[in-house]
Amino acid sequence: MLGCITVIATTMHAQDNMTARETAMKIADRIVASTSYDFKDTRTGEVFKSVKDMPLSMDIKVNSKYNNWHYTNGVTNIAMLELADKTGRKDYERYVVRNMDFVFNEGNLDFFRRQYDKALKDGGWYAVRKLSWHMIFRGKRLDDNGPMGASLIDLQMRHSDKAFLDYINTTDEHLRKAEPRLADGTIARLWPHVNTIWADDAFMAVSFLSRMGQLTGDNAYFDDAARQIISYDKHLWCPEKRIYYHCWHTDNGEHGVAHWSRANGWMFMAQADLLARMPESHPLRRQVMEIFRKQASGVARYQGKNGLWHQLLDKEDSFEEITGTAMFVFGIARGVKMGWLHPDFIYVAEQGLKGMMTKISRDGDVTAICTGTGIMPSTVYYYNRPQLTNDPMGEGPVLRALVEMIDAPRYTEIKAEEQYDKITVKGKH
After folding, report:
1. DSSP string covering 34-95, please?
2. 349-400 pLDDT tens trace
3. How many helices and strands, by DSSP H and E, does the chain display?
């Protein structure tokens, strides 16, 4: 028994010694190796490399979760491109190209269009949810197209492709003309109450808008993105706790019950993405910067003793969760490196990274990922959300945090004795 305990302790210690770079590459290599680029008949188990010109069957699905069209894979694709830039590993960039070619340029998309049209005709909106790639065609909400469109913009700026640009333009059209908004232009959802503002949508929208501004040079995109951040801050900020609520219902003027970690993370990551792209001279930049600094100061107060943040930020009896933690580490590390935050904040990110490492195995398996989470009127719902391992819901944010920490400065304490010479008696030198 003693020998087993020793092995386990050694394994955990070894994980503590892995660097952010090594860990990011372990995770990325695992994702690349497990992405299969094929399709499966869920009834017969037969696997196909292509569905081009295949007779219609409603039983065919994409085989790999990393080939799904879902906002979580959009974040992962963004992270893989950032990792490629930081490490010089162009195979990570080629991975994202391969993913998007598999969808748009290999003749597979028409099959799923036919699937979608039949399901919508026969069973309506609920029926299409069961299909692979249904979000490409549905395009009714930011989850369908925001972050995936954002990742395509990042890719388009490296590898120009008409199919990518066509989808980017379709997403742009939806966001500008069809996405539900309040009278003042604030993006809102039609559920669970009519016109509910979700903190999640700050990233779902701003990730795309900020990159469209970068792609086109049109300040109107930065205007819209900044106004979303300012409005979301106005409606969701809790001044007493200095963190955000998950939502605000416009019909009754009430906030939701939860200060959910990942919701706060979506807000923070959206601000960091916007500040990295909007012009220094933009008239709303200062206001966005103030919001970013305010949130950094607020979330730092809720970091747990192990470096992680809890599923519910203000509830220490809720579980330690990695996606919110990663988003805070990402934003703080970027903020320090860009000069947006005081250098002392890197200590918060360093402790967050240490906490993250306890939830990542030596083989790059990521644990403590809260599953997809909607809005419910009880904190019990948030307490009891399932935790996943190796799910795109968490892998993208974790990779982004690790990438930012690869070249982050180390915390350096300013010692008191080094400052004493600066203290003088008034009138004397």
Report:
1. H----EEETTT--EES--TTPPP-TTEEES-GGGS-SHHHHHHHHHHHHHHHHH--HHHHHH
2. 999 999 999 999 999 999 999 999 999 999 999 999 999 999 999 999 999 9
3. 16, 12
Q: How far, CA to CA in Å, does 276 sit from each of 6, 180, 224, 285, 298?
A: 46, 27, 16, 11, 21
Which helix or strand (DSSP H or E) is residue 127 part of? helix 109-128
Which tokens sit at 80?
């893989």
Q: What is the pLDDT of residues 411-428, one digit of tens each?
A: 998 888 888 888 887 766
Identify the band that residue 429 occupies on the pLDDT scale cut at 50, 70 and 90. low
Question: Please, which residues bridge with residue 289 across strands?
Answer: none
Tokens of 366: 């990521």
* Tokens representing residue 47 in the block: 């696997």
Q: How far apart are CA 353 and CA 392, in angstroms?
A: 19
Cis peptide preceding 283, ω within 30 of 0? no
Q: Alpha helices of 301-417 — where are they, by DSSP H?
A: 322-337, 346-357, 379-383, 392-406
3-state DSSP call for residue 110? helix
- Stated as kind and residue range, the H or E segment containing 309 is strand 309-310
Around 419, how many Cα atoms within 13 Å sit in the side-chain half-sphere?
4
pTM of the model: 0.94
Measured CA to CA, the distance from residue 352 to residue 304 in angstroms comes to 9
Contact between 136 and 109 under an 8 Å Cβ cutoff? The reply is: yes
Residue 412, token pair as written in the block: 């350096």
Dihedral-angle region of residue 385 (phi above 0 means left; psi in -120 to 50 means alpha; beta otherwise): beta
Strand partners, 189: 196
Q: Which amino acid is at 29?
A: D
**Two tokens at 378?**
């009880």
What's the CA angle centered on 291, arms 319 and 239, to 5 degrees? 65
CA distance 203 to 184: 19
Residue 176 · residue 170 · CB < 8 Å:
no
Sequence-ordered strand ranges (E) for 107-149: none
3-class SS of residue 304? coil
* H-helix or E-strand spanning residue 155: helix 142-156
